[in-house]
TrEMBL record:
Protein origin, superkingdom: Bacteria
Name listed for the protein in its UniProt record: Polyketide cyclase
Organism of this sequence: Pseudomonas nunensis
Length: 147
């Protein structure tokens, strides 16, 4: 399975501040570079990421193709949290969000392990570049939001 890992230094923020920002559900659509909408009875303004919590959302790929996801939060600690797709457009998707002290701020790392339903050929043709674009944009958005 492909693995994408990106790390960004977020200046003048502690690991606790960065992780807390990520754990607030209201920030998810702000970080994500494409439109996402919650499904079901989720109040995004009152959603705190907690271990065992499941939620559903619609991700608008390229801002036009609807894709429904069901995810579960597998782990939450003071240095990371992990979400995993239970149902959605991928054969597998596991996303680790990690924070660590860095010089002058916090190192924020996304580590994503995934597999496309169409296999390695589809990953090579489309999915790998798409994932890189999405996660690079997430890191840019976090930098802007946490200034």
């Amino acid at each position: 399975m492909p693995v994408l890992e990106l790390t960004t230094l977020i200046p003048d923020r502690t690991p606790a501040q960065v992780l807390d920002f990520c754990l607030e559900g209201v920030n998810f659509p702000k970080i994500f570079p494409e439109r996402v909408t919650p499904l079901g009875d989720i109040d995004i303004n009152n959603l705190r990421i907690e271990a065992g919590r499941q939620f559903r959302f619609r991700h608008w790929m390229f801002n036009v193709i609807p894709s429904n996801w069901t995810v579960v939060i597998r782990e939450v600690s003071d240095t990371h949290f992990i979400d995993e797709m239970l149902k959605g457009p991928m054969a597998a998707f596991r996303h680790e969000h990690r924070v660590a002290a860095g010089e002058g701020g916090t190192l924020y790392t996304d580590r994503v392990t995934y597999a496309a339903i169409g296999g390695a050929a589809l990953e090579w043709l489309l999915v790998n570049a798409y994932m890189r674009r999405i996660f690079e944009a997430r890191h840019r958005n976090m930098l802007c939001l946490l200034k």
